[in-house]
């Protein structure tokens, strides 16, 4: 059985890829995919970044942000280059979600940019 939160991110993948294609993004080029990770505990987030680095993944520098309620959160992105293929990105999303779960940080989905 697939975790309910993971199911949400898989549906997000279908919707986002569909919207990008409908808007006319170039589906014949690689897209920069940014998977978002966050935690209010910097030490946990740092351990997650180290685990990702050891897996050979490209990690962006962590940043501190303030939520709408005033709480502080730390975040970083794992960046990949992928074709805009739903199945490929779903597989990648599952890997990222499991990494976050294993490291006890939050997976906050992914985003990309429109490509000409």
Model description:
- Helices cover 44% and strands 28% of the residues.
- The chain contains three helices and five strands.
- Strands 1, 2, 3, 4 and 5 form a five-stranded antiparallel β-sheet that branches.
- α1 packs antiparallel against α3.
- The radius of gyration is 14 Å and the shape is globular.
- 22% of the residues are buried.
Summarize the structure.
With 116 residues, this protein is α+β, with helices and mostly antiparallel strands.
**Topology, number of strands:** 5
Any idea what the radius of gyration is? 14 Å
Low-pLDDT residue spans: none
Strand percent estimate = 25-35%
Largest sheet: 5 strands, antiparallel
Q: Helix content range of the residues, please?
A: 40-55%
Shape: globular
Helix tally?
Answer: 3
Order of helices and strands: HEHEEEHE
* Nearest-integer average pLDDT: 95
Helices and strands: which structural class?
Answer: alpha+beta
Keyword list:
5-stranded antiparallel sheet, 44% helix, 3 helices, alpha+beta
Per-chain topology:
Layout: H1 4-23, E1 31-39, H2 42-54, E2 58-59, E3 63-66, E4 72-82, H3 86-103, E5 106-111
Antiparallel strand pairs: 1-4, 1-5, 2-4, 3-4
């Amino acid at each position: 059985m697939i975790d309910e939160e993971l199911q949400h991110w898989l549906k997000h993948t279908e919707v986002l890829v569909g919207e990008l294609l409908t808007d006319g993004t170039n589906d014949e080029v690689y897209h920069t995919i940014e998977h978002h990770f966050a935690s209010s505990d910097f030490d946990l987030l740092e351990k997650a970044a180290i685990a990702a680095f050891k897996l050979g993944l490209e990690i962006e520098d962590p940043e501190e942000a303030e939520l709408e309620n005033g709480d502080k959160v730390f975040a970083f992105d794992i960046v990949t280059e992928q074709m805009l293929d739903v199945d490929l990105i779903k597989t990648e999303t599952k890997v990222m979600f499991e990494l976050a779960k294993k490291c006890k940080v939050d997976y906050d989905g992914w985003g990309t940019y429109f490509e000409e």
